[in-house]
Amino acid sequence: MTQQTSKIPISSIILDEDIYPRKGIDHKRVAIFSENIRDGFRFDPIEVEPCPDRPGWYRLLDGAHRWSAFKSTGVEEVEAIIKDLDGNDPLLYAAKKAIGPRQLTEDESRDTARRAYSGNASLSSVDIGKAIGRARRTVDSYIADLRAVNQMGLDIKIFRMNRLGIPQDRIAERLGLARTSFQYHLPKMATLPDSANGDLASGFTVAQVAQKHGWADPMVWSLALEGKNDHDRFKELGWGFCTWDNLKVTRKWEWNDCDKQFGDDWPGRIPAQLIAHILRYFTKPDDLVLDPMAGGGVTPDACLALGRRCWAFDMMDRPETRPEIEPFTWDISSDQGLLWPVSAKEKPDLVIFDPPYFDKKADSYDKKSISGLSRKAYLEFLEAFFILLKLNVKKKTRLAFINADWRDFQNTSAAEEKYKGGILIDDYIDILKRTGWYHTHIIQAPISSQRFNAGVVCAMQKKNILGVISRYVIILGTYH
Q1: Distances in whole angstroms, Cα of residue 380 to Cα of each of 108, 207, 337, 386, 473
Q2: What's the pLDDT tens digit per position in 233-269?
Q3: H/E/C letters for each residue in 122-152?
Q4: How many domains does the chain contain in total?
Q5: What count of other Cβ atoms lies within 10 Å of the Cβ of residue 135?
Q6: Whole-angstrom Cα distance, residue 363 to residue 25?
Q7: At what angle do helices 206-213 and 217-224 cross, to 10 degrees?
Q8: What is the CATH number of the domain that holds 57?
Q9: CATH number of 353's domain
Q10: If DSSP codes are grouped into helix, strand and coil, which group holds residue 350?
Q11: What are the pLDDT digits (tens) for 261-285?
């Protein structure tokens, strides 16, 4: 690993989020550094490496806060150590440098471990642990589900996609198989689950069978629950069943934690229990469910457990870990307008639409995510999407739209908030009605207040800030 020190233009340096181990920049720390710079304090050089795909540019390995402070004070050139990592993982190198001045938080450690392993499955838990300052067993727990899914063989991928009702031609195309080659694998589908079913019949738990065979838990649940009715499936999964939508009733649509067996660790991840309740109330076994923005895969996982078929799409292409989620970007800027992802005679019985919420976690999503659009563009996208959706579903198709009130409350006391500063559930309903969708249910499904730490709550109380933990599931149809 070689290095050299040079003065380089600060404008040629970028913060590449793909190799940045922290959740964001600490602006208080930047302000302190900026004051130090104005007082003549000299900092150690920052560390960068040449951008692999942008000649003449550099990406930060160490010193993001110093770099931000230099920029804020108008510095045009900075002293930098230019590293040649000789094939070493840049994310783990940056993580190791980051834990010197300040330990990574638990979330940052987990996220870094998962990103590093997703980028290079040959990395050991020991190597990752050394970089992020965590024990091997801790890293094992961070990446257990990724490791299991990474072991998914071709036959398992076909079996999983076939079980979700994805047409054979799309399975073959997704997996890069010629039609004749694909046909070779089909006879194996009948006998593939025999070994796992045998272990389940012998009393092994779902988790034990999943670990033994290298299957994801939802796949094993789909075998363990096969032939059972929805009531018994819920009972086996230990989810309970909420029969009311009122917050004052004990069985309400509120879950403090996501069931970690279902869905990947993902920005804006929602509980599988929530999806399962929508499926139980508004679909029947073997119905077709469409998830146009599938994210971490909670919907297809829940469909596997509850015996529903599912077509899922997302802009993030993960053929090795999520073959059932087909890559597709909803491009509102296209000259042709929004396009439908598939050409198929069959139409869904239910659409579960849980888009990235406006502005929330925008930094965590892909740069093309609708979360980062302006308020006007975000609402225009939804309107175009709902119009397109209506054209491509059956008359009796239901839409489950999951979203929340958005208010820019972070730095504003409740009394100072303005009408034009937010997007409330009424705004969504207005758009839905305007595009021909009519709601039959508005179900409260709040995000638990237990997610806020004491420091955040204290700061909000001092500024009279009224936070948002509201979330709603709106069930709609296209006929009155």
Answers
A1: 34, 44, 12, 10, 20
A2: 999 999 988 887 665 554 568 776 788 899 988 877 8
A3: CCCHHHHHHHHCCCHHHHHHHHHHHHHHHCC
A4: 3
A5: 11
A6: 11
A7: 120
A8: 3.90.1530.10
A9: 3.40.50.150
A10: strand
A11: 999 888 778 899 999 999 999 999 9
